[in-house]
Design brief:
Length: 348
Amino acid sequence: MSKEFVSRIIGMSVLAIGGIFFGLYMADQLKAPPFQYAIIFLLVGALVGLVLTPYLTIRPFLALRRRIRQAPAQQLLAAVLGLIVGLITAALISFPLSLLPPPFREILPFVAAILFGYLGIAVMTTRQRDIFNLIRGRFPDRGGGSEGENGARPVLLDTSVIIDGRIADISRTGFIEGEMLVPRFVLNELQHIADSSDALRRRRGRRGLEMLRRLQDESVAPVRITDMDIEDVREVDDKLVLLGKQLSCPIVTNDYNLNRVAQLQGVRVLNVNELANAVKALFLPGESLDVKIIQEGKEIGQGVGYLDDGTMVVVEDGKTHVGEEMEVVVTKVLQTAAGRMLFARLTH
C-alpha cells in the first residue's frame, strides 16, 4: 500500500467528517433539512479529500526531500545559515514595526520575517562560494587539512574514465586535488556492464569495478560514492552533465560525445585523452628514433608503426620492412583530434 494511497484515504475520511459538520451548520443557518446537507457536504468533502490530499501533503514533502537529497551539503548549509541570518534581521526590525498603528503592526512583522528569510537564503546560496572562501581566509585551517578541505573543487568521474583505468595513475600523482565523486548511477552502470552476457562488455565492466577499488585504495585525493541523483532523467551522460552544472564542478571523462555535450552546456570537462596527448613525448623534424613497423600504410610503399605511448608513425618506403625495427628520421609532425601523428623516412 503506497503512501499516497494512505494519504488519500486519510484526507477523504477527515474531509468527509468535516463535511458532515459543515453541512449540519449550513442547514441550521438556512433552516433546511439537515440530513440532505450533511450527505451533500459529506460527498463533496470525501471527493475533495480523495483528489487533493496528496497534492497538499505527501507530494510537496517528497519533492522537498528529493530537492534536499540532490542539493550539495555546502548549499544546504548556506541556505540554513541564510535563513537564520534573515530571521534574526527580521526580529531586530519587528520591534519598531510593532509600534506602527494597526493593522500595520500586526501584518508587517510577519511580512518582514518572510521577506528577510527569503533574502537571507537567496544571498547565501547565490554567493556561497565567495562567503565560504572568505571564512576560510579569515579562519585558516590550523590542522594541516587536505587540499580538498582547503577549497579544491570536487570532480565527477564518468563510466568510461573509470573503465579506462588511467585515472588511477593520475590520481596517485596528486594532479587532482579535489574529492573525486562517483555517483551511484555510474556505479550501477558499471555493475550492469559487468553482468552483461557479452564477454567483452563483461570484461570491461569488471575492469571498471577493479579500477574503482584501486582508486579508493591508492588515490591521494579522497574518492566518495555519492547518492546525489537527477530525477526524471534516464541517460547516465545527461545525469552527469546536469549534476556537474548543479555542483559547479568538472567532469572527468574520455568520452568524446560527453565532452562536447558538456561543453555546449557550460560544464567544464577534464578529458584524459587530451591530457595524454599533451604530455606525449614531442619529436621535432630531423630527430631520429627507433620504431617497429607492424603493418602497411594507406599509401603505396608506406609502413606504419607505433611508439610506446600509442603515437602513430608513418614511415615512407617502410612497407618492405614490416615486422622489423628500423631507425627513422622524423620529417613532419601532425596534430589531430585523435592525437599526434609522425611522418618519417628510413635513415638508410
